[in-house]
Amino acid sequence: MRAKPHIMRKMKNKKVINILKALATFVMILAICASGALLFHNYYYELIYVSGSSMSPTLNGATGESVGSVVDFGVVDTHNSAKKNIKRYSIVSTYYPDNIDYDLATNTLRKNAKKKIKRIIALPNETFKIEKGRLYVLQNEEYKLISYTFKTNPSVEEDFEGKDIGPLTLKDNEYWVLGDNREASRDSYTIGKPITYENIHGVLVAIEGKGKLYIKEYQCTNCGKKFKSYSGLCDRCYNEIEPVYDINNKQYSWPKYY
Known about the structure:
Elements: H1 5-44, E1 46-49, E2 70-77, H2 80-83, E3 91-94, E4 102-103, E5 108-109, E6 116-122, E7 127-131, E8 134-139, E9 142-146, E10 165-169, E11 174-178, H3 188-191, E12 195-196, E13 200-220, E14 226-227, E15 241-257
Antiparallel strand pairs: 1-2, 2-13, 3-6, 3-13, 4-5, 6-11, 7-8, 7-10, 8-9, 11-12, 13-14, 13-15
């Protein structure tokens, strides 16, 4: 005996309603997950951008901070758990232990200190040397060539002599950092000393896209007072003020993890 047409319509409508309810629940779960992931991303990691060319060809930044320049941006992990697990060739955001970043008399970070993005080349307690761009680490009383997993500029295949040093032995909290663009990088070789664990701000997690540089505000190089526009000298301590850059017009791409 066949079901009556109106009964069949009710059964079909009920089935459609159940499917729509399931879809709505699925979409809601996706939205909640996406919101949670975005909150975690924004609050757990810190946004950075590449301001110079010292990490070329790996990372793309402007040659000098220039308004309107298109640069890479991404996120760094600033937690101790990440910094304590730094490996050779990790890319880090760091300060330098010199008179530009630090007041050496008090060993305190200056208010206008700027983070630099560099690559870890040698690790704590290692004895190493760099000859014609190539890294050698002392292992079992002989120097072993450690292959790069990245490209340098110029390439070591060109048999160049750049940033050569050593042999040098690092202490238990010291790291030797270099820029991949060896000819245009201010790094451990340039300042003549390694960075320490305390100098490291964070570890690069991923590059997520590109954005345009703009001047967010101005800041005194001495007291740190902020200004909305350029006024030459700070009205508090009469030291110079300088622009503070940020990025806008972000264009996200598939993340590249490091």
